[in-house]
Amino acid sequence: MALSKKKVSNETIRRLALYLRSLHKLQEINLDIVSSGQISANLNVSPDQFRKDLSYFGSLGKRGVGYKVDNLIKHLEKILGIDKECRVIIVGVGKLGSALLAYPGFSNFNFRIVSAFDNDRKKVGKIINGIKIEEMENISRVVQKLEVHLAVLTVPSESAQMVATKLAKCGIKGILNFAPISLNLSNSIRILNVDVATELMTLRYLSRKACNLNTGSTLDRVTENFE
Amino acid sequence: MALSKKKVSNETIRRLALYLRSLHKLQEINLDIVSSGQISANLNVSPDQFRKDLSYFGSLGKRGVGYKVDNLIKHLEKILGIDKECRVIIVGVGKLGSALLAYPGFSNFNFRIVSAFDNDRKKVGKIINGIKIEEMENISRVVQKLEVHLAVLTVPSESAQMVATKLAKCGIKGILNFAPISLNLSNSIRILNVDVATELMTLRYLSRKACNLNTGSTLDRVTENFE
DNA sequence: CCTTGTGAAAACTTTCACAGCT
DNA sequence: AGCTGTGAAAGTTTTCACAAGG
C-alpha cells in the first residue's frame, strides 16, 4: 500500500486507456469480476504489467479474487479525468476533420465534441453530425463560453502553428495535433502528435526487419562518409 | 565505428522518420549541411539523442562539420526501407478511409496507395483520388498482382479481425490498424495501432496533471476496495 | 573551436518472485 | 488454492562527458 508520489509514465497512461476499453467490452458481456490474467490476454500486455500499472493508483483489486469490472472502470475514468464530461473542439474541417467530427467512438469515454471551426467560408454554417461549423474568429469566445478543454487540430501544416498559438492563448489545455509539424508552445499546454506517415514509415521498417531476419540483408550496415 | 548487432528500439525508428521529415524541409530551403543541434531544435529531441539514434546505423556525419542533408536523407530512406516505392492498400472506405485515400502526404515518403476496398456495393466502382474502390473479394488477387506490402485498416471494429486475418493470409507484411481492437495475428506480420480515443484520454490525463501540479488534487490517491 | 561518435553512468521501465489477503 | 500488490532484479533507453577528427 505504498502508493507514493512515484511518477507515472506516459506508457502506463496509454495502457490505462486500453484497459478501460477492454473493461467496457467485458461490462457489455455482463462479466462481474476479472483477473489481471484475463484482461491482459486480449491486449498485448503481461498480467504483471497490468497490476503494476494499477498499483501506482492504489489497491484497486481484491487478492485471491480479481477486479470488479464496474468498480475498476470508475476508478480508471477518475484517474484519466473522464469521469466528468470533457469538451472538445475540432479545428480544421477538411476530410480528416470531418471524419473525426462524425466518429461516434468518443462519447463512450465522456468526450463531447461541442464545436468545429474552419477558415473556408463555404464550410462555415454547414452542419455535420449535429455540429455547426463556425468561423475561426469565434474560437476564443466559444472556448471560454463552453469551457472547452481539448482541441483536435486538423488544419494544413502551413497554418498549424498559427492556429495552435491562438488555441493556447484562449486557454485550451491540450492539443491533439494531426498536422505533421512540431508545434512550439508554452509547456503549460500538452500536445500529442498523430502522424500517419510516420507510423507508416515505422511499420515499413518493422515489416522489412521481420522479413530480413535470415536473408543477409545489406540494410543494417550503412557506413560511408559523404564526398 | 562499433555499429554492431545492437538492437534498435521502436522509438529510435519513429524518430528517424521525424528526422526525415525535418530534413525534407531543410532540403527545400536549400540547406546543405546541418548539425545535430540545429535539427533537434525543431523537434523535441536532444542533439545527443539524435546522434545516438544515427550511430546505430554507422557514421553518417563528419566531425566538426555536421551532416550533409541530401546524404542523410538517402541514408534514412534506405534504413527505413522507403528508398524504393512501397505499395499500400486501404481497406475500408468509410469517412476515415476516404480521408486517408485523399491524403497527399504519403508520396513524399515513397508510399503509393495502389488500391482500396470496401464491402459496400454502393461504394464499389467509385473513384476517389484516382483510385477505384474494389470489392473485398479481390484483395488477395490485387495484393499478389501489385506486390502490396502494407495495408491501412479502416473497417469497423466488428469486422476488423476477420479482414485482418484475410490480409495476413494473402501475404501483407504490415497493418496500420485504426480499429480500436487488438488484432490477433501470426507474428510474422507487423501491426501498429492508431487509436484516437486512446490518444484523447492520454491527453486528458496529461493536461489535467499539468493543471493540478499545485492544487492539492485528490486524483493521485485512490485507495478503496470494493464492497 | 567546432561537431560527431560512443562508452559509461544515470534514469527509467518491465519482469520476476513471493509475501499477504480472500 | 488463487490472485493481488510490490520490492528487487533485469533489461532498456536516455543523458553525460569526452576522445577524435575537421
Automatic annotation (TrEMBL), chains A, B:
CoA-binding domain residues: 81-182
GO biological process terms, semicolon-separated: negative regulation of DNA-templated transcription; response to redox state
Superkingdom: Bacteria
Keyword RNA-binding attached: no
GO annotation, cellular component aspect: cytoplasm
Principal location listed in the UniProt entry: cytoplasm
Molecular function via GO: DNA binding; DNA-binding transcription factor activity
Entries under InterPro entries matching the protein: CoA-bd, NAD(P)-bd_dom_sf, Rex_actinobacterial-type, Rex_DNA-bd_C_dom, Tscrpt_rep_Rex, WH-like_DNA-bd_sf, WH_DNA-bd_sf
Positions contributing to NAD(+) binding: 92-97
Positions of transmembrane segments: none
Residues annotated to bind DNA: 18-57
Keyword Transcription tagged: yes
Record localization: Cytoplasm
Keyword terms, alphabetized: Cytoplasm, DNA-binding, NAD, Repressor, Transcription, Transcription regulation
Function: Modulates transcription in response to changes in cellular NADH/NAD(+) redox state.
Quaternary structure note: Homodimer.
Family per record: Belongs to the transcriptional regulatory Rex family.
Name assigned to this protein: Redox-sensing transcriptional repressor Rex
Organism (species): candidate division TA06 bacterium ADurb.Bin131
